[in-house]
Structures are given as structure tokens and as C-alpha cells.
Here is the input.
Amino acid sequence: MNRITLRLAVLMTCIGLNSAGAQSVGSTYTSTAPKDCRQIGRPSELDGGTTRACPGKDGLTVLIAEDDLREIVSVGRNRRQATDEPAAKVWFGPFNSSETTIEWRAVGAKPFAIIQRWHIADNDDPDKQGRPNTKAMLVVTRLPPGPVCHVAYVDAIANPTANELARKAADDFARGFVCGKDEVKVVGTRGRAVELATMR
Here is the structure.
């Protein structure tokens, strides 16, 4: 094998190794609609609140619990693990609900974050019937390994490119985010939905 051929072989090997190691980041989607999930127990006799477990990506389970017109969304290897995660203990003050489509950000087949659209009730903006209009926000949540918690909020009304901002936040922050230590980031323009969600 002459010197040029040897160099070419080494170069091709390096390119092959780099391609294998540099898997692209992409999105896939799952549903948390009641028809696609398993209800846990019976609805609350007090307010009709429910809990359901939904299949996610890579063997993960998504837990959706609703109580007093407020929801939590958490993820774990099983329902019990999802219940113990920090995300299962985060409640927004105003009435709220999450949409039933979850976007999974993953490297190859390994997800590292989810993005979900939420609707936060604005009591200062009633409709004609006196019910509060809702404001939309995207929530970025980190996934195992490590704890599951909110990483970033993106106001969906104040930011025309909210989906792109949420994906970038997931890609940039989720894997290195330390739950319980790092503060949830507000990405893009801070609008009314984020203001309502972060009210204390």
C-alpha cells in the first residue's frame, strides 16, 4: 500500500468514526390524550381530578395528574418513579392545563428533554362569560439520567418563533441543568403566560 493510499484509508476511517459519534438531535412526538393512556385509580369525588400514565419514548412513562383544575407533568422509568421526581411537585398558581402532544428531543433514539404547551388561566382577562382566558407557554423539562424538572419557559404569544426557541433551550440547557440548584430559564421575550406561571 503506497503512502497516498494509506493516508486516504486513515482519512476515511476518521470520517466514518466521526459520523458514527456525531448523531443528530431531532424530535419525535407522543400523545397524552386520555384515550392513549391508562387511568390510575378513580376520579376524585371532590373535584373530578384524575391521574393517568402515558407511554413515552425509550421506555419512559409520562405521568399527568390533575387536581383543582391544575396539572403536573412528570416522567420516569415507571409511574412510581415519575411521582417522585421534582417535576411532579411543581404547581403553577393559576388554573392551568397541558396540551396532549409531547415533543421529545433526542440524540439518536435517546431522549434528553420534552417540550409541552401549557395554558395558564388569566383571571385579569375574562371572556364574555366571565371565565378567564388562557395564555400559552412552552415548558422544557429535562429527562433522566438524573432528576426530571423544568428547565425553561417560553411564552408562546410573546415569541413568534416559540417552538424554535424551546428546542434550542432544550438542546442547550437540559442535559447540563441541575435540578434544585439552577433557576428555570425564561427564554425569549417574557410575556403574560410566563408572568402568570412564575407568580408566587
Observations:
- The longest strand covers residues 110-126.
- Residues 124 and 132 are 7 Å apart (CA to CA).
- Confidence is low (pLDDT under 50) at residues 8-21.
